[in-house]
Amino acid sequence: MDVFQAMRVFAKVVELEGFSRAAERLGISATAASRQVADLEARLGVRLLHRTTRRLYLTDSGRSYYERCAQILNDVDEAELAIASAAENPRGLLRVAAPVSFGIRHLTPLFLDYMARYPEVKLDVSLADRMVDMVEEGYDLALRITHELKTTLVARPLAVMRLAVCAAPAYLERHGIPRTPEDLRHHECLCYTYDAVRGSWEFEGPTGRVRVSVQGSFSTNNGDSLRAAALAGRGIIQEPTFQVGEDLRTGRLLRLLPEYPVPSLTLYAVYPSRRHLSPKVRTFIDFLVEHIAEPLPWDAWMRSR
């Protein structure tokens, strides 16, 4: 007796609630399906199913055995898929959603390099800072930068995204340098409108986390606009270092409150399911893992201080 085949027949009989339907799905006769399950019961020395003229019932042993069978069969299917996918060239349209500023500054070169490596893949990239509905809008993968990711989808962390509070030397010459987070209440703070708690900045203090309310005359939903306003000397910003790292390295912006670091964000690759992951999605995730790694190029200012 082929035990693996008998397990597959038994699992299909349970899932379809009948020998005839299971046999039809597997391309065998109902008699053969019934014999496979009977042989399996004989081998195990237990009854797996109670049979009546109208329906089938799992015994306690049958229920326990089915759960293990289902897991084993699923693992085998995924192993076979992984082998088949490894041999298959990535191809087709890959739809990706990514944040605007990070996408323009750092992801676009990677997109082009990925297509050079896998020329049969076409990329359709949507840059937006809003939280897209991947399933509803038909995306294969999304890149999200957040403190805490709340999702039922699969999320793979790619990198720690640091933040810095900073301002131009011209602003600090006019208004002074804040020494504690509380000092920010008296400064012009330029805010990002998509922050989880708008008008409130959080810091890691010597005695724990500190949250302070901030306000200013300019807010926007785009990090490049905040950076431009800060470079013009209009106020203080709290921005990811992928946005302002080069400015911090050259001194165009100065980091403030170094004793009170800002809690980091995380860059995630988010996709609908681990099961039946297509070669284009799998290779794209692997490509990002390969190229977005410590030391992050936009944090060179930290190493050069």
From TrEMBL:
| Residues that span the membrane, as ranges | none
Give a GO biological-process term.
Answer: DNA-templated transcription
**What does the UniProt keyword field contain?**
DNA-binding, Transcription, Transcription regulation
Which one of the record's GO molecular function terms can you name? Answer: DNA-binding transcription factor activity
Source species of the chain: Melittangium boletus DSM 14713
One Pfam family of this chain? LysR_substrate
Indicate the segments forming the HTH lysR-type domain, all copies. 1-59
Q: What is the name listed in the Swiss-Prot or TrEMBL entry for this protein?
A: LysR family transcriptional regulator
Q: What InterPro entries does the database record attribute to this sequence?
A: LysR-type_TF_proteobact-type (IPR058163), LysR_HTH_N (IPR000847), LysR_subst-bd (IPR005119), WH-like_DNA-bd_sf (IPR036388), WH_DNA-bd_sf (IPR036390)
In the record, the note on similarity to other proteins reads:
Belongs to the LysR transcriptional regulatory family.
